[in-house]
Amino acid sequence: MAETARHSESRYGNRPTMKDVAARAGVGLKTVSRVVNSEPGVTPDTERRVQEAIEALGFRRNDSARVLRKGRTASIGLVLEDLADPFYGPLSRAVEEVARAHGALLINGSSAEDPEREQELVLALCARRVDGLIVIPAGDDHRYLEPEMKAGIATVFVDRPAGRVDADMVLSDSFGGARAGVAHLVAHGHRRIGFIGDQPRIHTATERLRGYHAALADAGIEVEDSWVSLGPTDPARVRAAAEAMLAGPEPVTALFAGNNRVTVTAVRVLAECERRIALVGFDDIELADLLGITVISQDAAAVGRTAAEHLFRRLDGAAHAPARVELPTRLIPRGSGELPPA
Amino acid sequence: MAETARHSESRYGNRPTMKDVAARAGVGLKTVSRVVNSEPGVTPDTERRVQEAIEALGFRRNDSARVLRKGRTASIGLVLEDLADPFYGPLSRAVEEVARAHGALLINGSSAEDPEREQELVLALCARRVDGLIVIPAGDDHRYLEPEMKAGIATVFVDRPAGRVDADMVLSDSFGGARAGVAHLVAHGHRRIGFIGDQPRIHTATERLRGYHAALADAGIEVEDSWVSLGPTDPARVRAAAEAMLAGPEPVTALFAGNNRVTVTAVRVLAECERRIALVGFDDIELADLLGITVISQDAAAVGRTAAEHLFRRLDGAAHAPARVELPTRLIPRGSGELPPA
DNA sequence: TAGGCCCTGGACAACGTTGTCAAGAGAATG
DNA sequence: CATTCTCTTGACAACGTTGTCCAGGGCCTA
């Protein structure tokens, strides 16, 4: 009776505990634990009684307590930039599938491309003692993760390399992809090609720009300053950049878009333009086939899957040196990249 | 010394605990706890010593233990259908923002439209004692949640109503949206309008179908069986359904697509078709403006935000009867819905 | 029938944290 | 100077679970 009263004031509403189940089933605490965990050494009859008590009380094991005792949370953290970005949805989903196959839950958070917020999120996840972390870096200094990694939290960086820290990474071949895309435009006769990309702080942005320069250098073309624009990828900035490149006496005849957000805005701008400007975008977009947009496609799901599999291999004890995996990209010609110079 | 040895074998790598910090700083355990939680009653000098010890050891509070003691996990669970679906990315992100504003983390999982998997996920989240749940139901019987809700886990159902359980819900006006969309087609002269939707098990699918029927009834049009097709929304099934409606002696002159996946496939099929078939789709799609697709738009972010705010109001103690919020939809004409009958 | 063994079940401590409470040191008051 | 009061500090229990270890009972064997 006193027992009941105590529980009705308990913090979890009035969740029954194993102790309550044990009392109701007339067995010891540990026996309930055994039944709940399907451990051997319980007679069918006892097990039945315990199960009945569990049903009757609506008992559900408290995983917090379990975690405290066992030291494994069976959860991993995923810190990405923005879940609303169509590139990260499939990535996150792929990570989740792998986690599920390993019986783990996924906690995720968006950094909104803010290094401070990234750190805050990562540390919160560490405080929960996630078993592992997959991080799409916003910042470029991850030394704050060192104590955590030393303490055994497996970490894989994705899409962009980690800063000042030695860890596993899974990247797409941004340099090679951009180089191939720009070379494609060159092959179709373009000599004046614009590049609109993300902020230089972001590794993929500079890698793609490097690929752009490499392709033009390969073709013996000298890049003019006005052809390149790096910065935030909100529609307003991208629109302004694109319009600037298309205006003036010697406008570009083709554009290379540094990521999916840039591509979307570029398509809008080009649709309003009377001249036919060629376009190749980094990242595939839904319905791009119908719009005839030529893209460099990276397989977001494959990136996520690879990273997660890496992580779980670490969690299962793999102790080799940090690896750096680079996944290939693919050029998908659909028309916009094959337009001749206007 | 023995202390050190014990810890070096500990399960969390060798994470220092408050006890270790206390020993190093030469203070009591509780004093460390006070510093970590910024509780009052610690002299600046003591605080400094403790902070130093925390830094030196790389201490990070173990939230599992904290949760066990305090009873609040400061995390909420989100169970949706598929994170890779462009409708759910923004929804999830909106939920995350609200959670973040309340200092909570978001754990999410995909049910893949499988009721069993939904239940499995929800119960796993309950075992972790998330403070609250936001569920996009896959199944139609949620009585399994009753003990959990009674035990104090706040729950909000989103996008589709809960089955056999009294709880808060945030829905979009599927019926009204579909009715308006189909009426739009009727207003543009169509009398033979096809409907391709999701499986009838899914509430939004039947609501939208109901809207379709209502609009046609309003116009005094009798629906033919062959105009309606419900089922999985994978491209193959949708394509087959669309092609069937467009073939035969009396084909439909317009299509209403029951969700974004259907719309995407429908656009592809119609693009291959020589006749101009009108199309209105439920859910907006990126770049739909460029493709000129008329849609019924529901604001995924608003749905997520509303649900999350509802949830936290519950967590902050709101105890009114379960509410049912229905958010309006918006018809966005872009061309495809305004085509006259071929 | 005695001895030993196996099998089931339970008592107890421990995980790392926070709430309660009481003790001790100074400061303020009479 | 004695007393009370305040402020800082630490000892201890508790949260709900699991691992360790031991006890008791039934069964088999000699």
UniProtKB/TrEMBL annotation, chains A, B:
Entry-linked SUPFAM superfamilies: lambda repressor-like DNA-binding domains (SSF47413), Periplasmic binding protein-like I (SSF53822)
Record-level Gene Ontology MF annotations: DNA-binding transcription factor activity; transcription cis-regulatory region binding
CDD domains named in the record: HTH_LacI, PBP1_LacI_sugar_binding-like
Coiled coil: none
Superkingdom field: Bacteria
Domain HTH lacI-type span(s) in chain numbering: 16-70
A family per Pfam: Peripla_BP_3
Name this protein carries in UniProt: LacI family transcriptional regulator
Transmembrane segments: none
Taxonomic lineage of the native organism: Bacteria, Bacillati, Actinomycetota, Actinomycetes, Kitasatosporales
Organism: Streptomyces sp. NBC_00148
PANTHER family in the record: HTH-TYPE TRANSCRIPTIONAL REGULATOR GALS, LACI-RELATED TRANSCRIPTIONAL REPRESSOR
Alphabetic keyword roster: DNA-binding, Transcription, Transcription regulation
